[in-house]
Amino acid sequence: MSKWLLRFTALGYLTALLLVPVGFVFYRAFSDGFMHAWDAVSSGRAVHALELTLLLTAITVPVNTIVGIILALALVRGRFPGRGLLNAVVDLPLALSPVVVGLALYLLYGRGGWLGGLAEHGIRVLFAVPGMVLATMFVSLPFVVREVVPVLREIGTDQEQAAETLGAAPFQVFRRITLPAIRWAVAYGVVLTTARCIGEFGAVSIVSGRIEGKTETLPIYVQSQYAFDFNTSGAYAASVVLALIAITTVVLLRVFQPKEH
Amino acid sequence: MGIAVVDVTKSFGDFSALSNVSVAIPEGSLTALLGPSGSGKSTLLRVIAGLEPPDSGQVLIGDEDVTDRPARARGVGMVFQHYAAFKHMTVYDNVAFGLTIRKRPRKEISRRVHELLELVQLEGLAKRYPSQLSGGQRQRMALARALAVEPSVLLLDEPFGALDARVRKELRAWLRRLHEEVHVTTIIVTHDQEEAMEVAGQIVVLNDGRVEQVGSPRELYEQPANEFVMSFVGPVNRLGDTFVRPHDVELLLEPDAGCSEAMVERVVHLGFEVRAELVRDDGQHLLAQLTQEQAQLLELERGQIVYVRPSRETVFSAAAKPPGLPRSA
Prior knowledge:
The complex is a heterodimer of chains A (261) and B (329). Chain A has helices spanning 2-29, 34-42, 44-77, 83-90, 92-95, 98-109, 129-140, 142-155, 158-165, 170-199, 202-208, 218-227, 232-256. By secondary structure, chain A is mostly helical. In chain B, the strands form four sheets. Chain B has a six-stranded mixed beta sheet, with helices on both faces. In chain B, strands 13-17-14-15-16 form a five-stranded antiparallel beta sheet. Chain B has a four-stranded antiparallel beta sheet with strand order 2-1-4-5, covered by helices on one side. In chain B, α2 (91-101) crosses α3 and α2 packs parallel to α4. The longest helix of chain B is centred in the middle third of the chain and has 18 residues, at 165-182. Chains A and B meet through α9 and α10 of A and β6, α2 and α4 of B.
């Protein structure tokens, strides 16, 4: 009995909180007909927004995956002063509102900021792709680190030391022993990072300047359609694209993940 | 190859794991590092392996000073207490690892791996994963993996510690036979004196990061250098300043010269061996070890009064007392 109650509560909660709103988006996207929805997502502006979102993701995910693995190794295996501080700083993007991240970058690279002089040398950071990449990297940094750290702790150093005594150099130990052991944690971290990159709004919105057809990402496009252009079904249609990308990443992981995990 | 550890000191923060340890391990020997936990025996093994750099001192393998050499270049094979099996690799790939790293030809690797799997009696399990093996099988696989690279030194860190008693006993006997076949200089770390005595030709007793005594199992048992070694390598009764092994406690039914009265508190039958727990009239507790036959002749039972006499006792001079041990135990 209590088992059923538990299931019912969990499913009910998920349905009310997640499935109904998302389902409603799908429903409303096509309420003015499929063609209207198609036009909304196939316009030059929408396609550019999608391309820009994918570009940000394609740059950020590999960088944050590599940096994330290095940070996780440093946090678990490293013995250096300031490790506790590093551990706390890695979580900062999770705790900090993305709007604050955006503002921080704005102040740093904007006119009068410490790095504001870059613009005079022809390096545009704000209102351009580099700033958006920085913002996306910042907010999506913790995911790979947080997935990999507990797995590294759990596997310990025995296997790595055994490989070392068998003649493996440090990089060989990493490639043949450590990396295979953490690969599913990395994969899960990559999925979460990807989802965050595609969905990021707050920080990117501030540093991008929201220039139509130039620095407009898909989430920004959705909000513009809804709030400024009063094209609700267009906004819903673009939302559906975002949701489909998210669902695909999660499903792909489930398909490839071995049963025992 | 022989190993020499010269004046090695190692601390972890405030904890001194090894202080001025010097040990010589003869070529081809099977040596046990024996001591209680925290005695520094595992640290010493890891210093020899190159997994732990000593604060000072040297490690020589053969005639070469390897102190500054990384573990991968020392030619050692190591087996860990919890197997350290490469979980994502098959048994075959585990054993082949060292040879693959050395980029040996595939045919040679295959021949060598199958040879080794036969040696450790795991033929037919080459395609299994470590998770599909029992503890004893995993440890034999780890041993084959360590032997694959033809190490000049084989280092075993409590290799049977995680196994159940029966498998442990089997593997000990098996390790001795293996050592007779392979003849590689081997060091085994253990906290179990019975294991050390059963397996090793030479035992190094460690306590508090210091070497207490080095000798054959028989030397340690019959001529312990101090009370720590005496009480660590076998059960012992302490009577004031003298020490008596339980099998050197003579039990008589009638009082005789040099005897004292004692009451039988408990009789434990262990098959051939019978243990009697006694308490003397001065309150001193004693353990006596008898054969079943002797126990039957005495008709030992609880509450009975007997007369005890040590047939052989050991007294250590004050100088032989190890600094780490309290004066009265």
